[in-house]
Amino acid sequence: MYPPDIPYNTLVEDYRRNFSLENFKLNIEEKFCLIGLIVYLVEKNKSTKPDITYYKVIYALGKKQLPPEVIKGLAVVCEDFSKDTQTYPTYGIEKEQIIPTIQNFLGKYMPF
Fold first, then answer.
1. Which residues are CB-neighbours of 107 under 8 A, at least 6 positions away?
2. What pLDDT is recorded for position 53?
3. What does R_g of the chain's alpha carbons equal in angstroms?
4. Cα(100)–Cα(48) distance, rounded to whole angstroms?
5. Any residues with CB less than 8 A from the CB of 110 and at least 6 apart, and which?
6. Do 24 and 105 touch, CB atoms closer than 8 A?
7. Is 93 strand, coil or helix?
């Protein structure tokens, strides 16, 4: 946790630099869907693949279009959203379309 005397703008800058999804050209529903589908994919596979991580999944699906720091930031956000969660929405997306949907969303990253 940050000390209480850190200015709000400093926190915003830290967040944008490390965890922001602002360079994904997605609307808010698509951003939540991206996070939710990644969480679903990781959590549903933990029992059969105990070494699965958010970073490994995002890296495997997005290594061609995402810089390493974006992969790490998105992995941290997804892991944070997954905490204390027992249900994982798929937003009506069929199982066989989850990976292509994630890849489509990841492909909408623009570094500027």
1. 65
2. 98
3. 15
4. 21
5. 23, 24, 25
6. yes
7. coil
Residue 25's alpha-carbon distances to 43, 71, 107, 109, in angstroms, are: 26, 16, 9, 6
For 40, 47, 50, 77, 102, the CA distances from 88, given in Å and listed in that order, are: 5, 15, 18, 15, 15
Q: Name the token pair of 103.
A: 């890849």
pLDDT for the residue 18: 93
> How many CA atoms lie within 13 Å of 46's alpha carbon, on the beta-carbon side?
9
Strand partners, 109: 24
Cα separation, 38 vs 35, in Å, equals 5
The string of pLDDT tens digits covering residues 62-90 is 999 999 999 999 999 999 999 999 899 99
The model's pTM: 0.93
The shares of helix, strand and coil residues in the chain, as percent rounded to the nearest 5, are 60, 0, 40
Give per-residue pLDDT as tens, 22-44: 999 999 999 999 999 999 999 99
The number of C-alpha atoms within 13 Å of 111 and in the hemisphere containing its C-beta is 7
